[in-house]
Each structure stands twice: as structure tokens, then as C-alpha cells.
Specification:
Blueprint (H helix, E strand, L loop, with lengths): L3 E5 L3 E5 L18 E6 L5 E5 L4 E6 L3 E10 L5 E11 L23
Parallel strand pairs: 1-7
Antiparallel strand pairs: 2-5, 3-6, 4-5, 6-7
Length: 112
């Protein structure tokens, strides 16, 4: 998994963690007494939809940046963590809006 990803504000991406045993073999399911979790530092930028113990979907929100942290708490209460930096950028232009200030009196001639 990359350490960072950039999404537009109209995208989502599947992401997940792999838990390996001491011999480097991946677990197919979470061992008894072990828990996994995911949290976003700013859910308004990058939301999380948990699919299962190992997988999530990262949903984009407002433009900005967020860190997704995955945690695995082992039977002995020690914790393993990994992070994914998520940057959300604008999608393609879609609407054009004028902005207009408040009307003001013109200055007298020669005072501009």
C-alpha cells in the first residue's frame, strides 16, 4: 500500500492492511484476542467505511489532507500502527459564479 494517495473530491479508494505472522505469512482472519481499527484525523476530508477487519473504503470529502491510521491491538495489549496520508483536491470545474460586492457611492470627480 502506498504511504499516500491523492483523490478528487468525487472519488473513493479501497485500502487495507495485511497482518503477518512472525514468519512473514499473512493471516487470513484476525487471530483470537486481536483487534483491528481505523481512524481518520479529519473525517470531513477522508472518511472511512469499514468493509471487514482488514479492509476499508476511503471516501473523499472537502479539499484538504487527512491521515488514516490503522491499529492492531495484540493479545498482550501491544499495538501495531500504520498510516496512510490522504490528500483531497478539487474535481473538474463544474459551475461558474460571479461575486459582487456591496454598492458604494462614487467619489467626487478628481478624488479617485
Amino acid at each position: 500500500m502506498p504511504a499516500s494517495i491523492t483523490l478528487t473530491d468525487k472519488q473513493l479508494v479501497a485500502a487495507g492492511i495485511t497482518l503477518l505472522d512472525q514468519d512473514g505469512q499473512p493471516f487470513v482472519e484476525v487471530p483470537v484476542g486481536v483487534t483491528t481499527g481505523f481512524v481518520s484525523s479529519d473525517p470531513t476530508v477522508a472518511g472511512i467505511v469499514q468493509v471487514d477487519d482488514f479492509n476499508i473504503e476511503v471516501t473523499s470529502g472537502t479539499v484538504g489532507s487527512s491521515i488514516i491510521t490503522a491499529t492492531v491491538t495484540l493479545q498482550d495489549s501491544s499495538v501495531l500502527t500504520d498510516t496512510l496520508a490522504v490528500a483531497v483536491i478539487n474535481s473538474a470545474p463544474g459551475v461558474l459564479n460571479f461575486t459582487v460586492g456591496s454598492p458604494q457611492d462614487e467619489p467626487p470627480p478628481g478624488k479617485r
